[in-house]
Amino acid sequence: MEKKVCTKCNKEKNLTEYHKDRSKKDGHRFDCKECAKARKKKYYQENPEKERARVKKYREENAEKVKAYSKKY
C-alpha cells in the first residue's frame, strides 16, 4: 500500500487516508482527511454568518427539493 506525508500534521499515512483529487500528480489531496475535517470545522466556527447565508441561499433556490425531503421525514 502506498503512503504519503500530510503537509499539515507531517505524519506518514496510507493513501486511503486522503481525499481524491484528480488535479494532483498522485491523485490525492495534500492534507489528510483528519486535517481537512479540522480545517473545515475551524472555518465554520469562525464564520457562522457565511454558513447560515450559504444554507439559506440553498434552501431558497431548492425549495421544492427541501420541502419534499422534509415531508419524507
Quick structural overview:
With 73 residues, the chain is an alpha+beta fold.
Write the layout of secondary structure elements.
Elements: E1 3-5, E2 12-14, E3 18-20, E4 28-32, H1 33-46, H2 48-61, H3 63-72
Helix/strand order: EEEEHHH
What is the radius of gyration? Answer: 17 Å
Integer average pLDDT: 94
Distance between the termini: 42 Å
The total count of helices amounts to 3
Strand fraction? 15-25%
Secondary structure: helix percent: 40-55%
Secondary-structure content class: alpha+beta
| Inertia-based shape | elongated
Please state how the strands of the largest beta sheet are arranged side by side.
1-2
Uncertain runs: none
Tell me how many strands there are: 4
Largest sheet: 2 strands, antiparallel
What can you tell me about this protein's structure?
52% of the residues lie in helices and 19% in strands. The chain has helices at 33-46, 48-61, 63-72, and strands at residues 3-5, 12-14, 18-20, 28-32. By secondary structure, the protein is an alpha+beta fold. It has three helices and four strands. It is elongated and about 45 Å long. The model has no long low-confidence stretch (mean pLDDT 94). The protein starts with a strand and ends with a helix.
